[in-house]
Every structure is written in structure tokens, then in C-alpha cells.
Amino acid sequence: MKKTFKLLPFLLLLCILASCERNSSTQQIIFSEEEKQTPDSIQDEKNPIRLAISSVLSPTDTIVHYREIVNYIVEKLNRPAILIQRRSYNEISNLMVNGGADIALLPTGAYILYKDKGGFEGIATQERFGSPYYYGYIITKGENEFLELNDLKGKDIAFYDPSSYSGYLFVEEELEDRGEDIKSFFGRHVYTYSHEGSINAVLNSIVDAAAVNSLAFETMKRENPQETAMLKIIEKSMPLGTGPVVIRSNLPEEEKELIKESFLTMHEQEFMKQVLQGLYIDRFIPFDSEYYEVPYEMDE
pTM of the predicted model, to two decimals? Predict the structure, then answer.
């Protein structure tokens, strides 16, 4: 290893979540949670609806809000439900492709990579901060001399997930356009499976830069302005739609429509509006495939 870092507690956590070997493949550490949400009026023999999530924001801070969304769907469908939480985007996507979940809040990159595999379809898109779009940022400390991606040659970078558009794929595409690749361009790259973790890795000088979701960055900017003031954005991706809500294609049509209507009108109820605000979601709007069009081929 070219440089030795102080053994900060965060570094120990980062090394658990990500491989710290230079230019080596990263083993995924899977985090999961499954909970049953069942109203008293529902018979146990009814099959539960399965909702899968992988949160852009801190899972610890947001899980309570996702539970309320599940409770809301339970009431609308009059069926029990299971909340499935996964850390990796690959797992969430495969759940939908293979029929392991009925509904998912799918990350954008994962949707683009897996949409042609079949098994699911989009029904809604998240509107955040008044827009259905977001960006990928490359951030670094403000004190660093780096001004653009080219300045990071040989430097260390944190990524979110190999299937994340903002946290990996847009950087990969930028480098490919320049005849480079991730392994040869950067000195070391790690996967944190947390945008917050990636930001903290930069703040703690564990890495020189990080590719993060603009929504996560802007959220942290609101909650921790003093910390984010120490950072600067040196690259910005093209805009893409925020993560869509997708459903299993072979669900009954009547149930599909009920689920779709439930998401699109969720913000109209005061309690659910507060739940969505806890996730920095303004509301869900109708799905449009144009939100997810990219001018290049994205491969797994």
C-alpha cells in the first residue's frame, strides 16, 4: 500500500465495508433487514406484499420513514407486507428481476442497468428539492488543489456502489471517454455502500475524493453546513431521474393500479407528507422513461 492512514474508527468501519487493497476486486458485505407489517384485520394466510429498499441517505436515520410507507401500502392493499432492506444495488435489482420483491425503490443506476432484463416496470419517480432530477458529484476537500477529474490521476477515491450512477458509473464513463479506466487511473478505490460514508472519508482525509449523489450531498449540506463548507465539487454529471418506484410486472393489473395510485397521492395525506419530508422526498410523480435516458451504453 502506497500510503499509511491513521487507524481512525471510521477507517476500521470503511475497511469492513470495502476492500482496502489497491486495484483489487471488492467483496460485497451484505446488509439486510426483513420485517413483517400486518394489520390485525388481515388473515395470516394472505400472501405478504414485499417492498425492497436501498436508501440513498443513512439507513439508520431513514428506516423509520420507510416502515411508515410500508404501513401505508398495507392499509391500501389490505394485505400484510414485508420490508426488505439491502445495502448493495445489485441485490435490490436481482430481487426484482427474479421475483423476490413486489415493489422496490430502485436506485437510478440499477434501474438503467437492469431494466432490459424484464420482471419489473416503473410506476413513479421521486421529486426531491422540487425536481425529478439529480446529479453525480465528485467532491474533494476545499484545501486541495484538484480542480477537475484529470487532477485525480493516481489519487485515492471512494465510490458508493458499482451499480450506482452518481456514486460510480458516471466516473467510469468519463474515464472511458478519455481512454482510461478506474483501476489504472486512480491509486486506490474503495466502495463504502454509503454516500454519507464516502463524504466522511473525504472529510477525514482517508481518500482524496469521492463520487456521491447530489441529493445526499445537498441533504448533508442542510444538516451539517460547517462540514460540507470544507468540501468543493470538481465534477458534475449530466442530470438523470431520481430513483424510480418499480413493481413486479406479473402482479394483477388491479393491484398495480392501486399501488401506483397509492404512491402518486401519498403526499396528499398530512401524516405521509411528513414521512416523505423525513426522506427529503417532496412527492412521487408519474414515471417517465425519458428521465433515465443516457447517451451511452451502460453495462454491468
Answer: 0.79
Write out pLDDT tens, residues 53-94. 876 555 566 788 999 999 999 999 998 999 998 877 888 889
In the structure grid, which three cell numbers stand for residue 248, read together? Answer: 413486479
Determine what percent of the chain falls in helix, strand and coil, rounding each to the nearest 5.
40, 25, 40
**192 and 104 both lie in a single domain:** no
Helices (runs of H) and strands (runs of E) counted in the chain: 11, 14
In this structure, are residues 95 and 63 in contact, taking their beta carbons and an 8 Å threshold?
Answer: no
The position carrying cell 482517508 is 206
The residue from 221, 237, 253 where one domain ends is 237
Residue 122 in domain: yes
Per-residue pLDDT of 248-299, as tens digits, reads 999 999 999 999 999 999 999 999 999 999 999 999 999 999 999 986 665 5
